[in-house]
Design goal:
2 domains, Tachylectin-2, Chain A, mainly beta, about 10% helix
């Protein structure tokens, strides 16, 4: 296992040059970095959506031969380091289910059903646990959804609008909200669209980000924009829908930006590309090195003092600044010493 992990590191380092055109937007660059994992072995291009099952976090599921009749979902073994961060792929991948015309949406829903978007027929494919070919393919156009779906997901637990289905067609770039409705057979029907928000970019992947993540003060989404070759962020409203005026670049220079997912072990973001080398990138959030930047906004100022004191007053374990196991006046002194020093 140790040899395998070291090999994974070598693969990542060897691909560093391939990612040179990609960059984290300056607003986010102090708190995020990315690693190009390269192309998953034995997965035919172009790549589609991707997801990690929380019950099997060492396996990545990803679409291969995306947008084609021979499209399928592949299981890719993951190599993790001692901190559980993904650093590479195992030696071989295996096809686990047919998924014709799979696109950028791939996610788990109720009952372990695996959902995937189908382009360009504007369908929602559904696979019950253990199925090797889709159990249901639901036509979305007759329900009133614009065509044709690329990005789609369920709002995760803990977020506003949790459990809502978000359908975001590639062609129209119009964001729709809907509900899943059990059909009595282990698969699902879908309500008609309940929102119609005009965005842009030719969307393919959607990832929700919790409020309080570095430089994300409010609940947000990251959206893969295929047409623009970038990942953008939006704050979301109380229904989990993006607020157009809050759009901001997150990661640019991604030729063929496609699927998006979260790593259930680390919270890292994963993005695939359709073309553009057919690669998978991991974006890691990390606390800025300066400890005095308590609120992680990349600036040391009075806002850090206020954020620290708010946590200290309520006894939040984060305010144990000197890490002695207690939140007390020694933490205030320790923090202020760092803050006065500017780091």
């Amino acid at each position: 296992m140790m040899l395998q992990k070291l090999t994974g590191v070598a693969v990542v380092l060897g691909l560093a040059g391939a990612a040179c055109a990609q960059m984290i937007d300056p607003y986010y660059e102090c708190a995020y970095r990315f690693v190009d994992l390269g192309t998953p072995p034995d997965v035919p291009a172009p790549l589609g959506g991707l997801v990690i099952n929380p019950d099997d976090p060492d396996t990545l599921l990803i679409g291969g031969s995306a947008n084609r009749a021979e499209g399928a979902i592949y299981a890719v073994p993951l190599i993790r380091d001692a901190d559980d961060q993904i650093i590479g792929f195992g030696a071989a991948s295996a096809m686990i289910a047919e998924a014709p015309n799979i696109d950028g949406g791939l996610f788990y829903g109720p009952g372990g059903v695996l959902f995937f978007s189908r382009y360009s027929m504007n369908h929602l494919g559904q696979l019950k646990p253990g199925s090797t070919e889709f159990d249901k393919s639901l036509a979305l156009s007759p329900l009133g959804f614009s065509s044709s779906v690329g990005a789609m997901t369920l709002v995760p637990p803990g977020f506003q609008g949790a459990g809502r289905l978000k359908v975001f067609p590639y062609n129209s770039s119009r964001w729709h909200d809907a509900e899943l409705i059990g059909d009595g057979g282990g698969t699902f029907d879908v309500s008609g669209p309940m929102t119609d928000i005009v965005l842009s970019g030719g969307p393919e992947g959607i990832v929700y980000v919790e409020a309080g993540a570095s430089l994300f003060p409010a609940e947000s989404v990251l959206i893969s924009e295929y047409a623009g070759g970038r990942i953008v962020s939006y704050e979301v409203d109380s229904n989990g829908d993006p607020i157009p005026a809050t759009r901001r670049d997150f990661l640019t220079g991604l030729s063929g930006a496609e699927g998006g997912a979260r790593d259930p072990l680390t919270g890292d973001f994963l993005f695939s590309t359709f073309g553009g080398g057919d690669r998978v990138l991991v974006v890691r959030g990390f606390d800025p090195e300066c400890e005095a930047n308590y609120n992680a906004d990349c600036v040391v100022n009075t806002q850090d003092v206020l954020a620290f004191l708010n946590d200290w007053v309520i006894g939040d374990p984060k305010a144990d600044f000197n890490q002695d196991g207690s939140v007390n006046t020694l933490d205030v002194l320790s923090f202020l010493n760092r803050w006065v020093a500017g780091c």
